[in-house]
Amino acid sequence: MTDEQEKLVTRNVGLVGYMVNRYFPYIENQETRDDAFQEGCIGLIYAALSFDITKGAAFATYAAR
Predict the structure, then answer these.
(1) Cβ proximity of 60 and 12 under 8 Å
(2) Quick one: pLDDT at residue 9?
(3) Which of 58, 52, 48, 51 is closest to 5 using CA atoms?
(4) What end-to-end distance do the CA atoms of the chain give, in Å?
(5) Do residues 33 and 20 make contact, with C-beta atoms less than 8 angstroms apart?
(6) Please, what are the averages of pLDDT over each run of 10 residues along the chain (65 residues)?
(7) Residue pair 48/1 in contact by the 8 Å Cβ criterion
(8) Is the pTM of this model over 0.85?
(9) Exposed (0-12), middle (13-18) or buried (19+): which is 50, by Cβ within 10 Å?
(10) Cβ-based neighbours of 40, under 8 Å, separated by 6 or more
């Protein structure tokens, strides 16, 4: 991972929490919620690795998909 990719992940980790709360509000078990957050963080890392700024999309928009 490059420094720029790490910055993208660090700046957007809050997006993962937002998405977990928005799409999985019914999860009451904290361990399950933590698992969903960890999976989301892995997805965020993959998004940072494949993101191409020259395409014109914002990273948060790209990562949310």
Answers:
(1) yes
(2) 96
(3) 48
(4) 21
(5) yes
(6) 95 96 92 95 97 94 92
(7) yes
(8) yes
(9) exposed
(10) 16, 17, 19, 20
